[in-house]
Write a structure and sequence with these properties.
mainly alpha; 20 helices
């Protein structure tokens, strides 16, 4: 029989304060949400700091504090190739995609979503690009949301001793509430708090572990005494394996929840500062996560009685270190960082799914003349709809559907990544090229995943074949219209002169 929740426990109090603070931010954002642009993109008003922190928090889920430290604890630093790939991919995304996408989405009729951008960028009057892109987003993000809710439920279950069903509703409710109320601004502002909490946890914890292990040199020596494989970047790796891990970085260019942050920044001249902040945050967080797992090896080798849980489940290494090294109040703050990682990613996915349903289906196909107030409320209702479907999927945490999350990242990366990059860098690209790239990328990921050829991550062939399809079908197509060429030239001109104010978007 489960014990009732102890509300005098410092960890419980910390969690409750944190959740109430996030909901409070949601209600504060309510005051600034007047139309659909505010609800979906925050009225394109984000500063560089909030943009950077929100992009980071929406990217890094509970994997950052659970999966990555656990993998390094189990196998050593050879598991950090994925972190290197992510850093390279994120830098490329900030450098070559972020600013151009911000400018181009405003030029192309003030596009608020990725499907909206594709439609106007390629003058797709058939709306087929919009429909396919929105369907890809809805399918993958509903599954992603379900996965996030399972992670939140597991955290509540372990922390408070709740039943799984109760923990599922408790974990989902707080996130749903602040997204429902405050929309994009609530998500971005809470992301900023959550990103700050995550970096605090991932910098403080490894420092304390190293101190308790006798210092940096002694800790490394203890690890090497156990087995030198833990310090070998190439232990147990193959060329295909390293390529596959680093290829995760390719996925950034196609992730709608991250690209939405670029579209929402106040101006393109704020982007370089946002890039510096975002990349610094990412490098420190990933480095901290690797350090937690690596130096955790030394700590638990010296204190085996405290490491029984970690031996049974490597992903609990951060949780266990937080509990044994810090007083309960600090431990509560550090464990809240896991909840922050889960909630920040889940909230972004809920909002992007809601945006696709509202902007790309409801407004386009059902109510083209809907008022802004109506669209905002439809957006809120769509948040609830996606959340309920995700909760139904998540009620069975062993569901095979949740296994799809493993290649949803590749699905987005291959289906959208090459389309986004080439649409911003190559003026000759056409609607048929975009459509071919999207379909070829998504299908290649699905087929390759089921075949598992050569052990190569499906992102690699999916991304490459999508790019080839875009180029081939665009060159076989007639040249882009004069309007498309003018839009592209305007984007290039504004990128070359970022201080110049953006031209007002042309009405349909």
């Amino acid at each position: 029989e489960r014990k009732p929740v102890n509300f005098t426990n410092p960890t419980t109090i910390t969690f409750v304060i944190y959740i109430l603070a996030m909901i409070g931010i949601g209600f504060a954002a309510w005051r600034y949400t007047r139309d659909l642009s505010d609800y979906i993109l925050g009225g394109r008003s984000l500063g560089s700091f909030v943009t950077a922190m929100s992009a980071g928090a929406s990217d890094m889920s509970g994997w950052l504090l659970l999966g990555l430290p656990g993998a390094v604890y189990a196998s050593g630093v050879s598991e950090s190739w994925i972190a290197i790939g992510l850093i390279i991919g994120a830098w490329f995304n900030w450098q070559f995609v972020a600013g151009r996408l911000r400018v181009y989405t405003e030029i192309t009729r003030n596009a608020l979503t990725l499907p909206d951008y594709f439609t106007h960028r390629f003058e797709d009057k058939t709306k087929i690009l919009r429909v396919i892109a929105a369907l890809v987003i809805l399918v993958f993000f509903t599954i992603y949301c379900a996965s996030g809710m399972v992670a939140g439920a597991r955290l509540f279950e372990q922390t408070f001793g709740l039943s799984y069903d109760t923990a599922l509703w408790a974990g989902a409710a707080a996130t749903i509430l602040y997204v429902f109320v405050g929309g994009f601004l609530a998500v971005s502002w809470t992301d900023t708090v959550q990103a700050s909490l995550m970096i605090f946890a991932l910098l403080l914890t490894p420092v304390m572990v190293i101190m308790h292990a006798g210092g940096f040199a002694d800790a490394v020596q203890a690890i090497n005494t156990l087995d030198v494989k833990y310090s070998d970047m190439f232990h147990g790796t193959t060329t295909i394996g390293i390529i596959s891990l680093m290829a995760w970085g390719l996925g950034y260019m196609g992730q709608p929840h991250i690209l939405a942050r670029f579209m929402a920044i106040s101006s393109v001249d704020a982007m370089p500062n946002a890039r510096r902040i975002g990349m610094t945050w990412m490098i420190l967080c990933l480095g901290g996560a690797v350090a937690v797992g690596y130096f955790g090896i030394a700590y638990f080798a010296a204190n085996p009685q405290q490491g029984a849980t970690v031996q049974a489940n490597h992903e609990t290494v951060f949780i266990t270190l937080s509990q044994v090294l810090f007083n309960p109040w600090i431990a509560g703050v550090l464990l809240s960082a896991i909840l922050a990682a889960v909630m920040s990613t889940l909230s972004c996915q809920l909002l992007v799914s809601s945006s696709a349903l509202t902007e790309d289906f409801y407004k386009v196909f059902f109510r083209p003349d809907a008022s802004q107030k109506e669209l905002v409320w439809v957006g809120r209702l769509m948040v609830l709809l996606v959340a309920v479907i995700a909760i139904v999927i998540a009620r069975d945490p062993a569901s095979k559907v949740l296994g799809l999350v493993g290649y949803a990242w590749a699905g987005f990366g291959a289906a959208f990544g090459p389309v986004v990059i080439l649409s911003l860098l190559w003026p000759r690209m056409t609607r048929n090229g975009a459509l071919a790239g999207m379909l070829v990328g998504a299908l290649t990921v699905i087929i390759w995943r089921n075949g598992a050829w050569f052990g190569l991550y499906e992102m690699v062939p999916g991304f490459l074949l999508s790019g080839v399809a875009i180029v081939l079908f665009s060159l076989l197509d007639k040249a882009p219209s004069m309007r498309m060429q003018q839009d592209f030239a305007q984007m290039e001109a504004e990128m070359a002169n970022p201080g110049v104010s953006l031209t007002a978007p042309v009405a349909d």
